[in-house]
Specification:
- By secondary structure, this protein is an alpha+beta fold.
- The protein has two domains: 4-139, Alpha-Beta Barrel (N-terminal domain of MutM-like DNA repair proteins), CATH 3.20.190.10; 151-280, Orthogonal Bundle (Helicase, Ruva Protein, domain 3), CATH 1.10.8.
- Helix content is 31%, strand content 21%.
- The chain contains nine helices and eleven strands.
- It has helices spanning 4-18, 33-39, 68-74, 130-139, 151-159, 165-170, 180-189, 203-223, 235-238, and strands at 21-22, 24-26, 43-50, 53-59, 79-85, 91-96, 106-111, 115-120, 124-128, 269-273, 276-280.
- The protein has a five-stranded antiparallel sheet. The chain has a four-stranded antiparallel sheet with strand order 2-7-8-6. Strands 10-11 form a two-stranded antiparallel ribbon.
- A hairpin with a 3-residue loop joins β7 and β8.
- The longest helix has 21 residues, at 203-223.
- It is globular and about 60 Å long.
- It starts with a helix and ends in a 7-residue tail after the last strand.
Length: 287
C-alpha cells in the first residue's frame, strides 16, 4: 500500500496537471460513471492529501464551461470532492495528451489539454460533499505532511496506550500516512524498540520521531521514493553495494531480514505485527 508521501506527491502532480482547468471526466470501467457524468467539463480547483487519502476538488455540478477566472473566484464555494484511497491494489498513471483509448480496467480518467491520468483498482473512488470530506479528516490522526497537523494530538493517544509503538505508528487514527517502511525506519533511526508500549515513550522521544518523520516524508515527496539512511551510511560512504529492491531507496531495516545491520553488523530481525511484517535490529533497538 502506498505511504503518505506518495499520496501527497499525487496531489501535487494532479494540481500541476489540471488545477483551474475544465477537465474531461470519464469512467471507462463504468463503476464511477454516474459521478463522472456530473463532473465532466467542470473545473478542478485543488487537490490535497491527508494520510493515504487523496481528495480532488471540483467546482460544483453542472459547471461545465466555467473559465479559469471563474474557478479562481469561486474555488472556495460549491466544491464537490472525489475521494480516492488506493488500498493495496490501486494504481495511478499519468500520460501526455492525447490520451489513448482506455482499457475497461480504468475506474476514473481525467483528461486535459496536455495530460491525462488513469486510476485503476482503488479501494475507494467516490464523489463526496464537503461535510463528508470533513468527517474523513476528523477520524484521521495528524499527518506529518499537512500544515494543520498537531503532533500533540497523536502523543496524547500514544501516551495513554499500552499498545506497542510500532503498532500505534501504523494506526491511521493516531498518525496518518505512516506505513510499514516509515514506521520501521524511524524507530531504527532513534534506537527505539518497536515493542515498547506507547505509554513509555517520552514527550522528547515523540517530538524527535515526529520531526524526523516530517523531514523523511517531505524528502519522499520531493524524490518520489523512500530513502532513510543518513549520509554517512549510504553505499558510497560505506563502500557497500546499493540496495536492490522493487521499492527502491536506501533503508536500514525494512525488508532486510537476516542481513547485517549497517551500524552494528548483527542480523536484522522480522516478525508479524499489526498484520504487517515488522523489521528491526535487536542490538541497536534494545528495550
Amino acid at each position: 500500500m502506498p505511504e503518505g508521501h506518495t499520496i501527497h506527491r499525487l496531489a501535487q502532480d494532479c494540481t500541476a496537471a489540471f488545477a483551474r482547468t475544465a477537465v474531461r471526466v470519464t469512467s471507462p470501467q463504468g463503476r464511477f460513471a454516474d459521478s463522472a457524468a456530473l463532473l465532466d467539463g467542470t473545473v478542478l480547483t485543488t487537490a490535497e492529501a491527508h494520510g493515504k487519502h487523496l481528495f480532488l476538488g471540483f467546482l460544483g455540478f453542472g459547471a461545465a464551461g466555467n473559465t479559469a477566472e471563474d474557478a479562481a473566484e469561486d474555488a472556495a464555494e460549491n466544491l464537490a470532492w472525489v475521494h480516492i484511497h488506493l488500498g493495496l491494489f490501486g494504481k495511478v498513471a499519468f500520460g501526455p495528451a492525447p490520451a489513448p483509448p482506455p482499457t475497461d480496467t480504468v475506474r476514473l480518467r481525467l483528461a486535459g489539454d496536455t495530460t491525462y491520468v488513469d486510476l485503476r483498482g482503488p479501494t475507494t473512488c467516490a464523489l463526496i460533499t464537503d461535510p463528508e470530506k470533513r468527517a474523513i479528516h476528523d477520524r484521521l490522526g495528524p499527518d506529518p505532511l499537512r500544515p494543520d497537523a498537531d503532533p500533540a494530538a497523536a502523543h496524547r493517544r500514544i501516551s495513554r496506550s499500552r499498545t506497542t509503538i510500532a503498532a500505534l505508528l501504523m494506526d491511521q487514527k493516531v498518525v496518518a500516512g505512516v506505513g510499514n517502511v516509515y514506521r520501521a525506519e524511524v524507530l531504527f533511526r532513534h534506537g527505539i524498540d518497536p515493542y515498547r508500549p506507547g505509554k513509555d515513550l517520552t514527550p522528547a522521544e515523540w517530538d524527535t520521531i515526529w520531526q524526523d518523520l516530517t523531514a523523511l516524508m517531505r524528502e519522499g515527496v520531493r524524490n518520489n521514493r523512500i530513502d532513510t539512511v543518513r549520509p554517512e551510511h549510504t553505499p558510497e560512504a560505506m563502500g557497500r553495494p546499493p540496495r536492490v529492491d522493487d521499492h527502491g531507496g536506501e533503508v536500514y531495516v525494512y525488508r532486510r531480514a537476516n542481513q547485517p545491520c549497517h551500524l552494528c553488523g548483527g542480523p536484522i530481525s522480522t516478525a508479524g505485527l499489526a498484520a504487517r511484517n515488522l523489521f528491526w535490529c535487536p542490538t541497536c533497538q534494545k528495550r
